[in-house]
Design goal:
Oligomer: heterodimer
Order of helices and strands of chain A: EEEHEEHEHHHEHEHEEHH
Radius of gyration of chain A: 20 Å
Strand content of chain A: 15-25%
Largest sheet of chain A: 6 strands, mixed
Distance between the termini of chain A: 68 Å
Shape of chain B: globular
Helix content of chain A: 25-40%
Structural class of chain A: alpha/beta
Largest sheet of chain B: none
Number of strands of chain A: 10
Number of helices of chain A: 9
Strand order of the largest sheet of chain A: 6-7-8-3-9-10
Largest interface: A-B, 25 and 13 residues
Distance between the termini of chain B: 48 Å
């Protein structure tokens, strides 16, 4: 058996008394794309930040390319990070720089490319995410979906082996959600990268995923192929797939739905 | 009873030590990162502009005002025992040793230190600093070092400017308004001064520059909690660095004059 590219082993993380991840195990093979589903506040983002080394796990470890992230020195950690592209939920573009400078940032700092080569590479990256011709704009002039695509372009500039997407479609309209889903699929096929995508959007999740994991109260309760995930008998999985408020998913479920007949003065009935 | 009094006191002391330790560690990392590659000249120039060139009007105006007002009081005080001639000597002493470095330091803590805290604070809460780390760039090296270098060079230079403006502020008042002789003022201004005093002024300015940049960057980098956090970062940076400028001024004056 080959060594997985990303291996999350027994990772637990708590902030004060609040346990966010408890004993999470996940492994991602090279070239695979894993989608991590989960409700809001179940520790999905914390998981990605721990993989990036922005947070240190309380227990367990994460290894990327066989190196244990939290045991690396600063210099070694930065070397590993050059192979990982991170796409933030709110894009996190440098707002004092133009789109071009954002995408060129890591090229200028970590490579010896000439400015013509950098120009070419930036245009190539912007082309891959369908954002050609925006290079002189400032992030403030872009819409949410455009910002995220520029964020993708910045993440792929150094040709990373791994791409991490933190809720790439949250807060976008359905059409833009589909666009982003397609961009991720394109990147996966054209670059052959390994990806971990965090989302609550089921449609794009099933499009992107080779495997789907569901985080529930800090634990991975399912991690399998999309077809198997759909028919997983676990009540939590089925409730999440249905998108229903009733069931074991919420700790304090809302009051039951009102039936239509109790609305006595509906303006539609006049 | 005693415990209710000691508990909050103890946690306050621990909190303060925690902050001091954090500041010391970040400062140490900044100094170590100064010589690390790659050298980002463009970024450094931008900080020279923000810290140095753009601060010239503020420093000129405050130095002029403070030196002129100080001369008014000196002229009045020395007139009480017919020693008006001493006013220009004491004016020179005060401007070079104290007023120029301290006024420049305090003004820049307000103008530049707060801007650093606000900028880094905004970058922190919008995840831009995390994005820097993910692009394999040490935020200490990329953000702290150019600001530290710019402040360490520009605060002494602006102090030099402040001394020059302070000379003319005193001139304006003592020669222009009090009717003292211009020739006498020109020679008397330097009478109590030695070259050592310029060195003292520039050493103070260097220390103040380091305080301004490190405190401003530190408060910004440690910003937590959205808009309110970003609002608090500049305030606490100005208060903290002003306080340390005054404390450092006292000890530097005592130490350097020995």
């Amino acid at each position: 058996m080959t060594v997985p590219l990303i291996d999350v082993v027994n990772v637990s993380k708590a902030f004060g008394p609040k346990v966010v991840l408890s004993d999470v195990n996940l492994s991602v093979e090279e070239g695979e794309s894993l989608v991590v589903l989960g409700g809001s506040g179940t520790g999905k983002t914390v998981l990605l930040r721990t993989i990036m080394g922005l947070l240190t796990p309380d227990q367990g470890h994460i290894s990327v390319e066989g190196k244990i992230i939290h045991q690396l020195s600063w210099q070694e950690l930065f070397e590993v990070r050059k192979h990982i592209g991170m796409c933030f939920q709110m894009a996190a573009l440098f707002d004092s720089m133009t789109v071009f400078e954002n995408v060129a940032f890591s090229l200028r700092r970590h490579t010896t490319m000439t400015s013509a080569e950098i120009q070419f590479r930036v245009e190539e990256c912007l082309g891959l995410v369908g954002m050609k011709g925006t290079d002189q704009l400032k992030p403030a002039e872009l819409s949410g979906g455009m910002k995220r695509r520029v964020g993708f372009a910045r993440a792929i500039a150094l040709k990373p082996k791994i791409l991490l997407f933190d809720e790439p479609t949250t807060g976008l309209d359905p059409v833009m959600t589909d666009v982003i889903g397609r961009v991720i699929l394109d990147l996966k096929h054209e670059l052959g990268v390994t990806t971990i995508t965090i989302t609550h959007d089921l449609k794009s999740a099933f499009e992107i995923a080779d495997r789907i994991a569901l985080l529930f109260r800090g634990e991975v309760i399912a991690c399998e192929k999309p077809e198997a995930f759909k028919v997983n008998p676990n009540a939590v999985v089925q409730q999440f797939l249905r998108g229903d408020a009733d069931g074991p998913f919420l700790l304090d479920p809302p009051p039951p739905k009102r039936s239509q007949s109790t609305v006595s003065h509906s303006p539609l009935n006049v | 009873m005693l415990q209710t009094f000691l508990d909050p006191l103890g946690s306050r002391i621990l909190g303060a030590l925690d902050q001091a330790g954090d500041f010391a560690v970040l400062s140490g990392r900044t100094f170590r990162a100064v010589f690390r590659r790659p050298f980002d000249g463009e970024n450094l120039m931008r900080q020279f502009l923000a810290v140095g060139v753009n601060s010239v009007p503020v420093v000129v105006l405050t130095s002029l005002a403070v030196s002129a007002v100080f001369a008014v009081q000196l002229a009045f005080g020395f007139k009480q025992f017919q020693a008006e001639g001493l006013a220009s000597q004491v004016e020179g002493l005060a401007v070079v040793r104290e007023l120029a470095p301290v006024i420049t330091g305090l003004m820049l803590a307000g103008r530049v230190g707060s801007a650093m805290a606000a900028e880094l604070g905004t970058m922190q809460v919008t995840e831009q600093i995390d994005a820097l780390e993910c692009l394999a760039t040490d935020p200490i090296h990329y953000l702290f070092v150019p600001r530290l270098l710019a402040a360490a060079l520009m605060v002494p230079l602006l102090t030099g400017l402040s001394i020059y403006v302070g000379y003319w502020g005193g001139y304006l008042l003592l020669v222009g308004a009090e009717g003292q002789s211009a020739v006498v003022y020109q020679s008397e201004f330097y009478k109590l001064l030695a070259f050592k005093d310029v060195r003292i002024a520039l050493t103070k300015a260097l220390v103040f520059g380091l305080i301004i940049a490190l405190v401003g960057c530190w408060r910004g980098y440690r910003t937590r909690g959205g808009a309110e956090g970003v609002g608090n970062a500049p305030t606490s940076s100005v208060v903290t660095s002003s306080l340390w400028i005054l404390i450092a001024d006292f000890f530097l004056t005592k130490l350097l004059l020995v």
